[in-house]
Amino acid sequence: MSTLAYLRSFFMDKDVASVTPTSRFCVRTVCKPIDFSKDLNIVEYGAGTGVFSKYLLKHMSLDSQLYLFETNDILYKKLLEIKNQRVHFYRKSVEHVTEILGEELLGKVDYIISGIPFSFLDEAQKESILNQSKQILKEGGGFLAYQTSGHLKDPLEKTFGNVETEWEWRNIPPMTVYRAFK
Questions:
Q1: How far, in Å, CA of 57 to CA of 65, rounded?
Q2: Extents of the domains making up the chain
Q3: Annotation: CATH topology of 2-15+22-181
Q4: Contact 156, 131 (CB under 8 A)
Q5: 101-to-43, 68, 120 alpha-carbon distances in Å
Q6: How far apart are CA 45 and CA 67, in angstroms?
Q7: Which residues sit opposite 176 in a β-bridge?
Q8: What distance in Å separates the CA atoms of residue 19 and residue 4, rounded to the nearest whole number?
Q9: For residue 86, which phi and psi values (nearest 5 degrees)?
């Protein structure tokens, strides 16, 4: 059912960049740096149908919190099927993430996982989202993204001053995985 939701969304929404959910291999590669032994605040941009969300909830402590952003109606409805008190849903764009999450989370987010297609954004939008992401992350917090190409490396380097990349071939399509830390 998830793949069908993605296919429908792909053809109906210009902001959906994939025809299939992220593979378990890509999920594990993206989440590799996360220390699940601690209580965490994790924000997910473009949560889709919840592939990452379900993985995170299985591994997160009971006192961790997960903040999910998804703008696509079809994917958001699937996402709402996740019933867990640690999850907070936002049917809003991350273009105003600092305002949406508010002062209480500013500088307190451990990780941001992003699957939004940054290549679809203009430079000003991309820069704004990355700068806001840096603001909400705590010192040492990580911005973990997966994209279909290497286009995000320079903007991440500019914003965070560091970036690591890794390819995950066991995904359709293959993904570049990015890691940048505050």
A1: 9
A2: 2-15+22-181
A3: Rossmann fold (3.40.50)
A4: no
A5: 10, 11, 24
A6: 9
A7: 147, 167
A8: 8
A9: -85, -5
**36, 60 Cβ separation under 8 angstroms:** yes
List, in sequence order, every residue forming a beta bridge with 112; answer none if it has no partner: 43, 143
The residue type of 45 is Y
* 127: phi then psi, degrees, rounded to nearest 5: -65, -40
Rounded to 5°, the CA angle 149-155-160 comes to: 120
> Which tokens go with 8?
């429908």
- Tens of pLDDT, residues 123-174: 999 999 999 999 999 999 999 999 998 999 999 999 999 999 999 999 988 9
Q: According to DSSP H, which parts of the chain are helical? A: 2-12, 24-31, 51-59, 73-79, 97-101, 123-136, 153-160
DSSP letters spanning 13-54? -TT---SSPPPHHHHHHHHTT--TTS--EEEEES-TTSHHHH
Per-residue model confidence as pLDDT tens digits over 50-72: 999 999 999 999 999 999 999 98
CA distances from 152 to 9, 75, 108, 145, 149 (A): 24, 24, 24, 9, 8
From the DSSP assignment, how many helices (H) and strands (E) are in the chain?
Answer: 7, 7
